[in-house]
Amino acid sequence: LFLNCFHVFQLRQFLILYNSLTEVCFNSCVYSLNGRSLITDERQCVARCVEKNIRGNERILATILRMDVLDDQGFRLDGRRANELRQMRCHVGAVAEGDGSAYLEQGLTEVLAVVYGPTEGGRVRTRADRAVVECRVVDRNATPADRRPQEYAQLLKKVFETVVIGAHYPNSKIFIVCEVIANEGGLLATCINACSMALMHAGVPMLDFVAACSLTCYNDQPLLDVNHQEEVVAQLPRMTLALLVHDKTVALSELSCRAHADLVEAMLEQGKQGCMQVWNVLDKQLRAQFSSIIRAQHVADHV
Q: What would the mean pLDDT of 24-36 be, rounded to a whole number?
């Protein structure tokens, strides 16, 4: 009920902003009503007006949200506690293509990961001693100037090259495609979790399952599982931590900006606990789904 009211409030505020912005820019820029379309000067003026007002509203909203990210009772903007994760839902074998796939919802962030391979290298340069891992992140909502999909693909490659036991598949490649369906914060962590499940579904041997969690810090208080308001609008520092769940080895630690060493240490400790929370949630759902797959296969074998 709280989330529904919050979303209605967000929609109402967006419509108010949209209508006021339309009125302001129309009155400031449109002076010729002789034609159906805007003339060149009017279009340029409207573009400048919209950009200026949006940037101004973003700065105001960021200042307000920084004041209200965590209220006096310890609740965040979406009603969660500081160490509380968003709701998660996963499904392995989500698509028929590829050798393994996994769909993951983490809050309102949705990701689909598909694994192809191990297969022969083809045009990709392979290694004689181990398999080569290649990753690609597809975000159709990203702008051409946005380099994050390429950066995230390189980080995924870095993580899974060290986790996948590639020595079992020399002169071969493993190709991972991670498609972003919706991004409402914590995207890199969601991609890592989805890729781990897809590799597991494909039967690719790994040293351990990699669980990831995003976190930020507000007034020296670490906040787990960052949402869009905290990550983008409030512009708080963000860390993504990936952990091998059984031996507690850090596979990736990515920080969006500089931070004090004491703050980073506190975020790392809280992030490890968050990764284990993510693993506990996914472990229960994966066990239930794999049990269903095994039972279905057992029935099919005896028909």
A: 85
